[in-house]
């Protein structure tokens, strides 16, 4: 089948508002949009400025009303606990509406913020939808973040309530969440007055009198009383959620998602990009704490009338590298979406695909990869093993859905390995040089998106229009700066090569090296430091810290380095995967004093590097190489 991508993209280019007006017909509005885009509202404009809607209604209630009540909506599969449960749309409605009533009892109303700090259990999804139902703004914090990070998010979002569980389960260890929550509460200035705590048998939490409420008891009581909260009418431009992501400093950016544009974009993507039909099972093997989890574990499949999968496990070790194949077979998964790192992990443990032979993956039509650059080796291995199209697509927390990819729904285009293929409607991509001039095909530069951003993309950062403008919109006036570098070839294919800022990508998780440097420099013996993302065969990149000690520090370097590793785990969390700090005598700098992190990274990666013309003292690079070599790196 010839791909309809070009015709579709050109139709959008000819009439962007007409295109999104048509896509908006797929949503059940309380008041449909009369205006499609208001360029004068907000930082760069607002989509569907006069429409009224409710996201939970579209994700849940409307499917019950249109006869999908008995169809699976949420499949929970937890190899770490052995639990498996299926909730139909009717049951999902009951769980969500009841929990929403409990939230109201705890004083949560429209516009209030609710933080979720939860493992991968269906209750986390119910919590998100319950907030959406009553117009509360949820903010999910990934369980691998430390109390300090949780506290930073509390301070920015000023939540009324936190939804949490007594523990999360990582392979081989149970992580008690309650002590982490208590520490965060001690650290935060804007702490929530109440916590709703889901007790899990693997580690019961001691409840704090007057603050903590037992999740099951509250929900059971509300169910017994037959209480259900109705969907609250919201402006399409009202915030649905805030999702914090790494910024260039330790202070995370609160990416805001609205209700209307978000629904329109995600619904469009399910059919036209992912080639999924209502009633099918869509599995995003990510975590609800990430943007992929928000959009493609939770909202998009449900908006489209699909079953979503909440998987509490890992691609390997829970219990083996055949877990993904078991889940696909057992639950008839039509499309799997994960990060390349998950496939690298499986490939490493089962290169010949022995575990694959035990399962029949008849239901699987497509594999989608995103979150980091997909290396051709892994893509081709997955193609060989699964025998289905493997689609790399590029997106960011900020956009909430894919900027560029190979659209399975419109018909796949010829694959070019290493390329995320072509832009989706809504995204007008340009490659710019430092002065904002457009670069010719094949030339590497900054990837920028011509404003306005499409529906679904962030309208702003939480409570901080100025940071939204300074972070994304001032570098190239009229454009959103993606902070990714790359090029577009003569056929319009985009190649996304890496970040232009201090963000690194560790196992598909986005982390700020600047944030880590703030932690390292907080150690009393450290005078100076630099963190770079070193290439890693499994995780893509891992952070590597260099420290210069204060003069007169006579303690063993190994001891200090161990403390540094523990400090990053304590302040940022295990998700940072910071395992190596190396003591050096000096850091290489330019004559104006800027640390030459790029060259240090190349040395660590053992790739070719050239002596920067501006370096103050070239001998320092030899010292860096020697220090790494001495550590076997
Ligand atoms: N709560 C608490 N700790 C967590 C956690 C959570 N929700 N998630 C991860 N961690 C911990 C891990 O246990 C690990 O701790 P350790 O240093 O004691 O081993 C650390 O954080 C780093 O985690 P991770 O980077 O995930 O590494 P891993 O070795 O546990 O697993 C992969 C590696 C590749 C299997 C895993 O990263 C993965 O499945 N990635 C798939 C895709 C994905 O989730 N992408 C996200 C965006 S699409
Ligand atoms: P996150 O906000 O966590 O989704 O991370 C977004 C960043 O991950 C992007 O800015 C890219 O640097 C990187 N990224 C995501 N998907 C891809 C991809 N398909 N190819 C290359 N880089 C990607």
Question: Brief overview, please?
Answer:
The chain is α/β, with parallel strands linked by helices and 633 residues long. β4 (72-78) and β5 form a beta hairpin.
Describe this structure in words.
The chain is globular. Helices cover 32% and strands 24% of the residues. It has 18 helices and 31 strands. By secondary structure, the chain is an alpha/beta fold. It has two domains: 5-313 and 393-486, ANL, N-terminal domain (Rossmann fold, 3-Layer(aba) Sandwich), CATH 3.40.50; 507-630, 2-Layer Sandwich (GMP Synthetase, Chain A, domain 3). Bound molecules: coenzyme A and adenosine monophosphate. Adenosine monophosphate binds at residues 245, 291, 370-374, 392-397, 420, 484, 496, 499, 505, 510.
Counted by DSSP, the helix tally is 18
| Integer average pLDDT | 96
Helix coverage percent: 25-40%
Number of strands: 31
Q: Tell me the count of domains.
A: 2
Strand order of the largest sheet: 5-4-17-16-18-19-20
- The whole-angstrom Rg is 24 Å
Q: Tell me, what is the CATH class of the largest domain?
A: Alpha Beta
Strand fraction equals 15-25%
């Amino acid at each position: 089948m010839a791909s309809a991508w070009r015709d579709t993209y050109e139709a959008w280019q000819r009439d962007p508002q007409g295109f999104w007006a048509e896509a908006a017909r797929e949503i059940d509005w309380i008041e449909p949009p009369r205006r499609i885009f208001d360029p004068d509202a907000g930082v760069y404009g607002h989509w569907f400025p006069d429409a009224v809607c409710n996201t939970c209604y579209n994700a849940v209630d409307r499917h019950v009303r249109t006869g999908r009540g008995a169809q699976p909506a949420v499949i929970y599969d937890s190899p770490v606990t052995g639990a498996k449960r299926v909730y139909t749309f009717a049951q999902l409605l009951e769980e969500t509406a009841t929990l929403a009533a409990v939230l109201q009892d705890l004083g949560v109303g429209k516009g209030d913020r609710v933080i979720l700090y939860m493992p991968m259990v269906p209750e986390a999804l119910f919590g998100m939808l319950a907030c959406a139902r009553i117009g509360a703004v949820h903010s999910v914090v990934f369980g691998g973040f430390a109390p300090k990070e949780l506290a930073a998010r509390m301070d920015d979002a000023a939540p009324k309530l936190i939804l949490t569980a007594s523990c999360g389960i990582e392979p081989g260890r149970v992580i008690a969440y309650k002590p982490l929550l208590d520490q965060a509460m001690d650290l935060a200035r804007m702490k929530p007055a109440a916590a709703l705590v889901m007790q899990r048998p693997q580690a019961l939490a001691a409840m704090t009198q007057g603050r903590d409420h037992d999740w099951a008891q509250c929900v059971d009581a509300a169910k017994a009383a037959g209480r259900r909260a109705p969907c609250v009418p919201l402006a399409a431009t009202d915030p649905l959620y805030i999702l914090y992501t790494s910024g260039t400093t330790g202070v995370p950016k609160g990416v805001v998602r609205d209700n209307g544009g978000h629904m329109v974009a995600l619904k469009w993507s399910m059919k036209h990009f992912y080639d999924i039909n209502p009633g099918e099972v869509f599995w995003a093997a990510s975590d609800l704490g990430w943007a992929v989890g928000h959009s493609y574990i939770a909202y998009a499949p449900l908006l489209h009338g699909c079953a979503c999968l909440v998987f509490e496990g890992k691609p390997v070790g829970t219990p083996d590298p055949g877990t993904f194949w078991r889940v696909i077979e057992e639950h008839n998964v039509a499309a799997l979406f994960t990060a390349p790192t998950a496939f690298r992990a499986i490939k490493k443990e089962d290169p010949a695909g022995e575990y694959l032979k035990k399962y029949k993956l008849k239901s699987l039509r497509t594999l989608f990869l995103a979150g980091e650059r997909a290396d051709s080796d892994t893509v081709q291995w997955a193609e060989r093993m699964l025998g289905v199209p493997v689609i790399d697509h590029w997106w960011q927390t900020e956009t909430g859905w894919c900027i560029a990819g190979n659209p399975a729904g419109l018909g796949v285009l010829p694959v070019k390995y290493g390329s995320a293929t072509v832009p989706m409607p809504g995204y007008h991509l340009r490659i710019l040089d430092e002065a904002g001039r457009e670069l010719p095909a094949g030339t590497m530069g900054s990837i920028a998106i011509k404003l306005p951003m499409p529906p679904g993309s962030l309208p702003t950062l939480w409570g901080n229009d100025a940071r939204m403008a300074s972070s994304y919109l001032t570098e190239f006036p009229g454009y959103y700066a993606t902070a990714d570098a790359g090029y577009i070839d003569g056929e319009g294919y985009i190649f996304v090569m890496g970040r232009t800022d201090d963000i690194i990508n560790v196992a598909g998780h986005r982390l700020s090296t600047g944030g880590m440097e703030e932690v390292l420099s907080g150690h009393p013996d450290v005078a100076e430091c630099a963190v770079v993302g070193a290439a890693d065969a499994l995780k893509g990149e891992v952070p590597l810290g260099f420290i210069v000690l204060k003069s007169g520090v006579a303690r063993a370097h190994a001891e200090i380095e161990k403390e540094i590793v523990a400090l990053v785990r304590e302040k940022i969390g295990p998700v940072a995967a910071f395992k190596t700090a190396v003591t050096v005598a000096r850091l290489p700098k330019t004559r104006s004093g800027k640390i030459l992190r790029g060259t240090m990274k190349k040395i660590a990666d053992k790739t070719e590097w050239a002596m920067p013309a501006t370096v103050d003292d070239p001998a320092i690079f030899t010292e860096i190489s020697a220090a790494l070599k001495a550590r076997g790196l």
